[in-house]
Please model this.
Amino acid sequence: MTETPIIAINYKAYPQAFGKKALEIAKQAEKVAKETGVIVIVAPPFTELYRIAQEVEIPVYAQHVDPYDPGAHTGYIPLEALKEVGVKGTIINHSEHQMKIADIHKIVTKAKKLGIETLVCGDVPEVGAAVAVLEPDMIAVEPPELIGTGIPVSKAKPEVVTRSVELIRKVNPRVKILTGAGITTGEDVAAAIKLGTIGVLVASAVMKAKDPYKVIKDMAEKALKALE
Amino acid sequence: MTETPIIAINYKAYPQAFGKKALEIAKQAEKVAKETGVIVIVAPPFTELYRIAQEVEIPVYAQHVDPYDPGAHTGYIPLEALKEVGVKGTIINHSEHQMKIADIHKIVTKAKKLGIETLVCGDVPEVGAAVAVLEPDMIAVEPPELIGTGIPVSKAKPEVVTRSVELIRKVNPRVKILTGAGITTGEDVAAAIKLGTIGVLVASAVMKAKDPYKVIKDMAEKALKALE
Amino acid sequence: MTETPIIAINYKAYPQAFGKKALEIAKQAEKVAKETGVIVIVAPPFTELYRIAQEVEIPVYAQHVDPYDPGAHTGYIPLEALKEVGVKGTIINHSEHQMKIADIHKIVTKAKKLGIETLVCGDVPEVGAAVAVLEPDMIAVEPPELIGTGIPVSKAKPEVVTRSVELIRKVNPRVKILTGAGITTGEDVAAAIKLGTIGVLVASAVMKAKDPYKVIKDMAEKALKALE
Amino acid sequence: MTETPIIAINYKAYPQAFGKKALEIAKQAEKVAKETGVIVIVAPPFTELYRIAQEVEIPVYAQHVDPYDPGAHTGYIPLEALKEVGVKGTIINHSEHQMKIADIHKIVTKAKKLGIETLVCGDVPEVGAAVAVLEPDMIAVEPPELIGTGIPVSKAKPEVVTRSVELIRKVNPRVKILTGAGITTGEDVAAAIKLGTIGVLVASAVMKAKDPYKVIKDMAEKALKALE
Model:
C-alpha cells in the first residue's frame, strides 16, 4: 500500500488569489484531484475561504491562523473562525508569517480537538524536526532563499530534503513530510518524492501560471509516477 | 445642516462574530439604519466579510488590514482583498491590534486611492491627534482600560472625549471623531455626542446582547436626539 | 560522578536589576557559588552586562539576544555584542520575550560557533522538547501561569517537571534541564532536582528578597543535598 | 541668535559599534564637539552605553527603548535603565525598529518626566508631522529607501526635507527637525540645513569611515557655515 501524494497550493496574496480567478484555480485543482486521485489542497486568503469552500470538494486550508480563543481580539482569526467557514486545515509558520514556538504548539494542539488539520512550515531541516515534536499533520521544509525563485529545492538542494526526512523521522514516524521553495514543474515534484517526501507546497508556479490546470496536472501525474 | 450620527459595531472575535449569528446582527443593524437614518457600520472578521457584504446594504468594514501590496505575503490581507469582497472601509490600529505609525500612514494613503474608508483608533487623545495628521476618514479614541468593562468613557472620563475633540480639531478640521470603550446604552452614546463627537465604536454591548436590535435601536435614537 | 546543580537568576527589568543593587546581587550570587560550588548564573539587563561582567567571575548571561548579524540593525543586540562585553551565555525565548522558532534555531547554532551558551525557555513540556531538538546547552520549562506567583512549579505541578524531563530526554540525552516559575525557597529547588532536573531559573524570589544572599544560599545548599 | 547644529551618530549594530572602536568613535565625536561647538550625539548599542557614557561628555543616546515600566519584562530596556547608565536621550521608531504609535506616545511622555530627550524617526514627512504632535525633542525624517545608500536625501530628494519642515511646523513650532538617509559628506549636511533643518542623523558614513574624526569634523564645519 502506498501513500497518496499531496500538492498544497498556497495562494499567498497574489493578485490571482482573490475573486473570480481564485475560485477558478480552486476548480482546476479540484479537477486534477478528481482525475488523478492526488490530494490537492488549496489555501486562499482569509477573505476568500468561505466562497471557495462552498464551491469545491477538495480540502481548503487557511494560510495562517491566530493563537487566540474566541473573544475580544480585534482583527484576529481563531481556529473556530476557520471551522465556521468549512475550512479543513491551515498552514502555519510560513516563512512569510512566522510564529512563536509556544503559539505553534497551542494551535496544533487545539486544531486536533477541533478536527482541523495543520501544515507547519520550517525554514531548515532542524526547524522541521523541532516542530515535528509537536505532532502536526504535515510539515513542509522550505528554504526561504529559494521561495519564489523557480529554482527547485528538490533539485538545487536535494540534501535539504533528505536531511529534513532524516531529522523529522527521528522524532516523529507519522507526520507527512512535504517540501517546497522553487517547485515549478512536475519533474521538481517527482524529485521531491523520490527524496522521501510525500508531496510539495507550491505557490507562484501555479498562481502565476497562464494555465494553472496544466501545471497542477503535470505535478500530479509526475508525483504518481514517482511513487510507483 | 447637521451631520448624521455613526454607530460602528466591532464584532471582534466574539463567538457571535461568526456564521449565522454574525449575519443576524448585521441584518438587525441594517434594520436600525433604515428605520432611523443613522449610519450603522458592521465590522465582522475577515472570514465573514464576503458573506455579510453580500447580504446587507449598510457599510461593512474590516477590523484590520495589513500594510502590504498584493504579492508573496502568506496569511496577510491587503486592502485590495477587502475591495474584492465588497467591503467599504476598515478599522485599523485598534488597541487590540496596534500598528506602526508608518504602516498607518501607508494604509490611510492607499485606502484613499482605492476608495476604502479608514477608521483609525487611538488609545489617548494625543494619539488620536497624531493620527489625525494622516487624514483618515474617522478617528475613534478609546481608553483601553475601559474597553469591555461596560463603564462608558463618555460618562466615566468625559475629559477624554472633550480633549480628543480639542486636540484632533487643532490639526484636522474635517475628520469624523468617534469615541469608544465601555459604551453600553443609548444614553452613553448621547453623552458622547453631546461632548462633541459624531458617534461611537461599540463591541461587547451589541455582540453579547440578548437582543442586539434593541440595543442598536436605542443607541441610534438617543444619538439622533442628542444631535437635535 | 554527579552533575553540579545550576541556579540561574533572571534579573528581568525589576527596579533592583539596575545600578548598584544589580551589582550587589551579582556579588552575593558569586559568594554563594564560591562557598557551595553550585553554578550560579546572573542574567542582568543589556545595559548592565558590561559593568557586572567586569566585576564577578560567575557566568553572566543576557536575558535575550536578537537574531541578527552585525550590521544596520538599529536598537538590536546581536550575539557578537554579548561576546564583546564578556558575557558567557544568554537566555532566549522567555515567556515574556518569545521568539520565532527559526530565530531560536539561528541563535543556538550561531552561539555555538561563538562559544556562547544558550538557555532556551519553553512554556510547556512539549515546547521544551521541540527546542531540545535544536540542541541548546540548557532548557528551562516554565508554565507562565505560575511565573511571579510564588507558587512553585516543582510542588504545585510536579507533573510539568517530570513530563518535561521525559519528553526532552526522548529527543536529546545531553541538554541540561532546568525548571522555573514560582520557585521561592531552597525546598522548591530541592523538589525540582528530585524530579529529575539539574536546577532552576528564578527571578522575583531573589530580586525582590530583603536578603538575596540568604535566599540564593538556601537554594544552593538544598540543591546539593537533593543531589546526594 | 542662531541655533546650534546637531549631528547625531547612530552606531546601529555595525561591527564598529562595539568595544574599543565604539569608544574611539565617541572620543572623536567629542573632540569635534569641543573644537566646533556643534552638538554631536552618539548612539551606541545598549551593551556599550555604560562604558561610553562614563568616558565622554557629549550626549550619549540609546538607539531604542522599550515602552515598559520596570518590572517583569525579560530582555527589555525601560527608560529607567537608560537613566541608570547616564544616558541623556534616546532615538525611537527608527525605520529599522519601528514602534506602535501608542508606544511612541507613552515613551515621549514618560521620557519628559524622567529628563530623557527623545529623537523620534519617521519615514516620510507626514509621519514626521504625526509624531510631532506628540511633542518629542527632535524628529528625524529618513526615507528608508535611501538609508545606507550614500545617496543623500538632502540632495537627491530635497522636497522630502522641505515638506518635512513645512508639515511638522504646522503642528509643532518648537521641535528640532533633523533629516537623514544617505548623508555622507559635510556638503550633504549643509544642504540639509539650508533646507530648513537643524541637523542630521547619520550612521554608515561615520561608522564605516577610515577616519571618522575627519568625516564628523567636515560635517560640523559645513553645518556651521550653512547656518551663517
Observations:
- The first strand of chain A starts at residue 6 and ends at 10.
- Chain A touches chain B through 42 residues (CB under 8 Å).
